[in-house]
C-alpha cells in the first residue's frame, strides 16, 4: 500500500496531465478517487487549471496585418510575387464565363450605348456636347468612372496605413470611404487593367471582397 | 493545435521557396500563435518575443526546404525558436539555465497555499506569471508550454525533450512548486 506522501507525490506529478486531459483512463480514475478522498487537493487542481488557461491566453499585441507587412518588407520579395499568384490567362471563352467579367462587360456596353444615344439625341445644348461628340467620333475614351471604380470590403484587421501602401503600390486612387461597413471605393489608373487590378486586390489578405462598382458614392457624375 | 496536412504543408513550403507570399501567410497564420506563445514561455519579455517570433518566420521564409519532414513541422519551428531564444538571452548577457537550479536564490521557501496563488493570479496574473515563469530553467518552461499550451501527454513531452517520462513529471512538479512559491512571494510584495 502506498503511503500518503507517495500518493500526494503521484497526484502532483499527474496533475498537469489530469487538467490537460491526456492522462490514461486508469490514472484519471485514480486521480478522481484521490480527489474524493482528499477534497483539499481540489485547490491544486484549480490552480493547475488556471495556469493552463493563463498559458493559452498568450497573444501578440500587434495586429497580424502589421506583423505580416513587416515581414513582407523585410523579405523584399519582388512585386511580381503578387502577379504570379494571379489566375493564369485562360482562353477568352472561359474568361467570359466569369460572372463579374460578364457584369463588367455589360456595364461597358451599357455606357457605350448611353453615350451613343447621347450622340443620336443630345439632350444638352449643342455647344456642350459638341466637343464630347467629336471626341467620341475620334475614338477617344471618355473619362467616366463607370466600370473603372472598384468597391472593396476590408478585412476587419486591416490597418489603414497598410491599406494605403497597397493602394499606392497598385496606383489606385481613393474615391470614397471607408464607410461604417469597412468599404472603400477606389479608381484604377488610366490604362490599367480592371481584371488584373481585381485579381491583385483579391489576392491581398487585407481585402475580403473586391468588385467592379458602377456607382461610387460621392464621385463626380459622369457627363451625359 | 493541429498540424497542416503533410501534402498541404509540402505544397506551401514549395510555394514559399518560389517567394509566394500568400503561401507564406497561410503557414504564418496557422503556426504564429503557437510559436509566439512558446517564445514568451521561454523568454518573458514581450518585445523580445515579438522580435524572436518574427525572426523565426523570416528564417522559414528564406529557407523553407530546410524542413526535411523528420519531425512534426511545429516541432521544427519551435526548435528554431528555441535556438533564437538562446541567442537572444546570450546577447542580453543572461545566463541560460537549462536544468535544476538553486531555487532559494530567487524564491524563498514558504508554506504553499492555493488561495494565495489564486489571489495572485486574479490580481496581477499576467505580470506575475510572466515574471515567475521567466525564472524557471528552460527545460521546465518548455515542459510547461507543452503540457498547458499543446496539451501534450507525458509521453509526447518525453519524446520532445528526449528524456524519460519520470524526468518530465519531475520537471513539471518542480516547475509548479517553484511557480507557486514565486507567486506567493510576489503576492507578499517581495520581488522574487
TrEMBL record, chain B:
Which residue ranges traverse the bilayer? none
User: Any idea which UniProt keywords this protein has?
Assistant: DNA-binding, Sigma factor, Transcription, Transcription regulation
UniProt GO MF annotations? DNA binding; sigma factor activity
Q: Where in the numbering of this chain does the RNA polymerase sigma-70 region domain appear?
A: 28-94
Task: Answer whether the UniProt record assigns the keyword NADP to this protein.
Answer: no
InterPro entries assigned to the protein according to its UniProt record, in alphabetical order: RNA_pol_sigma-70-like, RNA_pol_sigma-70_dom, RNA_pol_sigma70_r2, RNA_pol_sigma70_r4_t2, RNA_pol_sigma_r2, RNA_pol_sigma_r3/r4-like, WH-like_DNA-bd_sf
GO biological process, any:
DNA-templated transcription initiation
Q: What region holds the RNA polymerase sigma factor 70 region 4 type domain? A: 127-179
| Similarity comment: family membership | Belongs to the sigma-70 factor family. ECF subfamily.
Question: What NCBIfam families has UniProt attached to this entry?
Answer: sigma70-ECF (TIGR02937)
Q: What is the name attached to this protein's record?
A: RNA polymerase subunit sigma-70
Amino acid at each position: 500500500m502506498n503511503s500518503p506522501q507517495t500518493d500526494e507525490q503521484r497526484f502532483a506529478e499527474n496533475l498537469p496531465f489530469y487538467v490537460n486531459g491526456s492522462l490514461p483512463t486508469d490514472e484519471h480514475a485514480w486521480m478522481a478517487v484521490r480527489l474524493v478522498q482528499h477534497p483539499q487537493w481540489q485547490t491544486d487542481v484549480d490552480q493547475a487549471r488556471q495556469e493552463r488557461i493563463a498559458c493559452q491566453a498568450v497573444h501578440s499585441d500587434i495586429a497580424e496585418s502589421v506583423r505580416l507587412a513587416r515581414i513582407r518588407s523585410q523579405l523584399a520579395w519582388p512585386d511580381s510575387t503578387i502577379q504570379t499568384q494571379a489566375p493564369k490567362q485562360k482562353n477568352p471563352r472561359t474568361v467570359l464565363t466569369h460572372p463579374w467579367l460578364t457584369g463588367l462587360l455589360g456595364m461597358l456596353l451599357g455606357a457605350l450605348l448611353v453615350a451613343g444615344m447621347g450622340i443620336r439625341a443630345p439632350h444638352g445644348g449643342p455647344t456642350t456636347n459638341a466637343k464630347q461628340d467629336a471626341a467620341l467620333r475620334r475614338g477617344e475614351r471618355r473619362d467616366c468612372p463607370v466600370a473603372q471604380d472598384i468597391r472593396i470590403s476590408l478585412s476587419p484587421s486591416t490597418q489603414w496605413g497598410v491599406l494605403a501602401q497597397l493602394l499606392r503600390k497598385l496606383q489606385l486612387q481613393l474615391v470614397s470611404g471607408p464607410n461604417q461597413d469597412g468599404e472603400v471605393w477606389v479608381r484604377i489608373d488610366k490604362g490599367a487593367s480592371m481584371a488584373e487590378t481585381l485579381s491583385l486586390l483579391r489576392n491581398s489578405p487585407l481585402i475580403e471582397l473586391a468588385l467592379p462598382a458602377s456607382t461610387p458614392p460621392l464621385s463626380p457624375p459622369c457627363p451625359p | 493545435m493541429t498540424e497542416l496536412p503533410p501534402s498541404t504543408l509540402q505544397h506551401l513550403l514549395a510555394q514559399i521557396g518560389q517567394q509566394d507570399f500568400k503561401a507564406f501567410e497561410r503557414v504564418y497564420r496557422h503556426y504564429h500563435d503557437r510559436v509566439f506563445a512558446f517564445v514568451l514561455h521561454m523568454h518573458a519579455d514581450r518585445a523580445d518575443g515579438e522580435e524572436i517570433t518574427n525572426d523565426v518566420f523570416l528564417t522559414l521564409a528564406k529557407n523553407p526546404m530546410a524542413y526535411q519532414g523528420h519531425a512534426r513541422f511545429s516541432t521544427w519551428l519551435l526548435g528554431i525558436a528555441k535556438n533564437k531564444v538562446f541567442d537572444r538571452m546570450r546577447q542580453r548577457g543572461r545566463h541560460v539555465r537549462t536544468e535544476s537550479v538553486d531555487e532559494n536564490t530567487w524564491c524563498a521557501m514558504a508554506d504553499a497555499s492555493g488561495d494565495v496563488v489564486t489571489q495572485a493570479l486574479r490580481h496581477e496574473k499576467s505580470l506575475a506569471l510572466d515574471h515567475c515563469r521567466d525564472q524557471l530553467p528552460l527545460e521546465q518552461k518548455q515542459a510547461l508550454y507543452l503540457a498547458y499550451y499543446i496539451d501534450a501527454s507525458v509521453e509526447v513531452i518525453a519524446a520532445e525533450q528526449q528524456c524519460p517520462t519520470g524526468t518530465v513529471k519531475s520537471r513539471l512538479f518542480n516547475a509548479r512548486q517553484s511557480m507557486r512559491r514565486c507567486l506567493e512571494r510576489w503576492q507578499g510584495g517581495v520581488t522574487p
